[in-house]
Structure formats: structure tokens, C-alpha cells
Design a protein that fits this description.
Elements (H helix, E strand, L loop, with lengths): L16 H10 L6 E4 L7 E5 L8 E5 L16 H5 L4 E5 L11 H16 L10 E5 L2 H9 L4
Parallel strand pairs: 3-4, 3-5
Antiparallel strand pairs: 1-2, 2-4
Helix pairs in contact: 3-4
């Protein structure tokens, strides 16, 4: 998706703006397949498939203080994974303050469920799903590892 296709977010802080601009610049020409796992545009995945076959899946959840961010912020990471035959999935989720905890977290859990149930369509193994994230996304990823 293009960033202007998403609903508005709270303004990003002056400290985070250079990061957001840089990662968008680095990933500007890297596009994954957009897949919705929910009804809201933020409930979406970017699926980056290797040219050759793959087995493992690495899902990465963006940061942004739970109030900002886009899955597209992580597109710049895709080549490092797909060039090593790992399917790379960027995860979007609904943001605060409009959607308070646990909504964004539940979105991430639903994203993992979607990947588990559908990733064989991309020649990947649902039993080899790994999670990571940056900042707020790292928080959600760590919570997902202890969820029932």
C-alpha cells in the first residue's frame, strides 16, 4: 500500500521523523505482496517471497510507540532475508490512541494465525515461523511468545 492510503495517524515526533524518512527511502523500491488479514487497512501484511524455494518465515512487527508506523517501514529489510531463502513478512496493526491495548496486540496475534494458516501457498513451512520487531513491535512480538 501507499502511505497516503492509510487512515491518518497522530503526528510523528520530531525525534522519530528522521528514522521514518530514512527507512522509507531505503525501502522505496522494495515491494511485497499486500495481504489483508482484517477489515482495517492497518491489518495487513507485506509478503516478500524469495525467488527460490523457502522454508522458514520471519515476521517483523514495526515500531512507532504504539501510535505510529507502517509495515512498509520494514521493506528495506526484505533483501537480507529473501536472498537467504527466508520468506519475510512485515506486519501492520491498528494504532493507539484510536485502538487501545490489547487491540494492536490482538491484531498481531491474528496476523500470526493468518500466516500459520496460509503460508503454505507461498511454499513456506508454517512450523518454521519466527517473530521479531522493533520497539513497540518488539514488545508485541515478545508478548506473542507467551500467549496461549
Amino acid at each position: 500500500m501507499q502511505l497516503n492510503e492509510y487512515p491518518a495517524q497522530d503526528p510523528i515526533s520530531e525525534f522519530a521523523r528522521p528514522y521514518a524518512e530514512k527507512v522509507m527511502q531505503l525501502g522505496a523500491n522494495i515491494k511485497g505482496e499486500d495481504v489483508l488479514y482484517g477489515a482495517n487497512p492497518y491489518q495487513s501484511l507485506g509478503i516478500h517471497k524469495p525467488l527460490k524455494g523457502c522454508g522458514a518465515v520471519f515476521m517483523f512487527i514495526h515500531g512507532g510507540g504504539w501510535t505510529n508506523g507502517y509495515k512498509e517501514w520494514n521493506n528495506f529489510m526484505a533483501p537480507a532475508f529473501v536472498n537467504n531463502d527466508i520468506l519475510f513478512v512485515t506486519v501492520g496493526y491498528r494504532l493507539a490512541p484510536m485502538y487501545l491495548f490489547p487491540e494492536g496486540f490482538n491484531d498481531c496475534a491474528n496476523a500470526v494465525t493468518w500466516v500459520y494458516n496460509n503460508i503454505t501457498k507461498y511454499d513456506a513451512d508454517p512450523n518454521q515461523i519466527f517473530l521479531g520487531g522493533h520497539s513497540a513491535g518488539g514488545h508485541y512480538a515478545s508478548l506473542l511468545t507467551v500467549r496461549d
